[in-house]
From TrEMBL:
Record family assignment: Belongs to the IMPACT family.
Gene Ontology, cellular component aspect: cytoplasm
Organism: Flavobacterium psychrotolerans
Name of the molecule in the record: YigZ family protein
Coiled-coil zones: none
Pfam families per the UniProt record, alphabetical: Impact_N
Residue ranges annotated for the Impact N-terminal domain, each copy included: 22-126
UniProt-listed Gene3D superfamilies: Impact, N-terminal domain
An annotated GO BP: regulation of translational initiation
SUPFAM superfamilies: Ribosomal protein S5 domain 2-like
Length: 207
């Protein structure tokens, strides 16, 4: 079984989408995020833009394995808004994504079924309007070595198509490198077996 080392996300914030149901308006927005800390700062400008709106519901997911997700109905009946939004994130198989749906009440109650349908449709339209891209899951390592070993380190980096993220070249050299997850164990073993070279994994968020 092949190791999965790619994931889908959105390239940038989506254009605004609008769905109407019985005079209620639902504005949809999608944003790329890396953590829950980004959610509130992204919603605040929407609250200012739509100051007459009554509900700012959202769903988000970050990470791959494990994933982290949360939903918020923001005053709508329980599970009638946030979960239908999150369901579309799952349906499109994307992660590191926040979807916010802003609702203006049109004077006619939609009922639970109507709300679920409206929030689901708005989230769907928002993701359809987004640019969905595929990214690789990369593993980062820090390697340390004496300058005299530079050539053999660089030879492996060139042969194995390894990306150099950062480097400090002095008598004692340090380098941060990145490689696709499916190649990570092999790359670690190569450097780990080399004389006078230290390698350790660097913990990184999935982005």
């Amino acid at each position: 079984m092949d190791l999965v080392d790619t994931f889908k996300t959105i390239a940038c914030a989506s254009p605004e989408t609008l769905f109407k149901e019985k005079n209620s308006k639902f504005f949809g927005y999608a944003f790329p995020i890396l953590s829950e800390n980004e959610v509130k700062p992204l919603i605040e400008p929407l609250r200012k833009k739509h100051f007459n709106a009554v509900h700012f519901c959202y769903g988000f997911q970050t990470g791959i394995d494990p994933i982290s997700f949360r939903t918020n109905d923001d005053g709508e009946p329980s599970n009638s808004a946030g979960m239908p939004i999150y369901g579309q994130i799952q349906s499109f198989d994307v992660t590191n994504v926040l979807i916010v749906v802003v609702r203006y009440f049109g004077g006619t109650k939609l009922g639970i079924g109507g709300l679920i349908s409206a929030y689901k449709t708005t989230a769907q339209l928002t993701l359809e309007a987004s640019t969905i891209i595929e990214k690789t899951i990369d593993v980062h390592y820090c390697i340390a070595f004496d300058y005299k070993n530079m050539n053999k380190v660089m030879r492996v980096i060139k042969e194995k198509n390894i990306t150099i993220i950062a480097q400090k070249m002095e008598m004692n050299c340090e380098m941060e490198i990145a490689t696709r997850k499916k190649n990570a164990e092999m790359i670690f073993d190569i450097f780990n077996s080399m004389f006078e070279i230290e390698i350790k994994k660097k913990i990184m968020p999935i982005n």
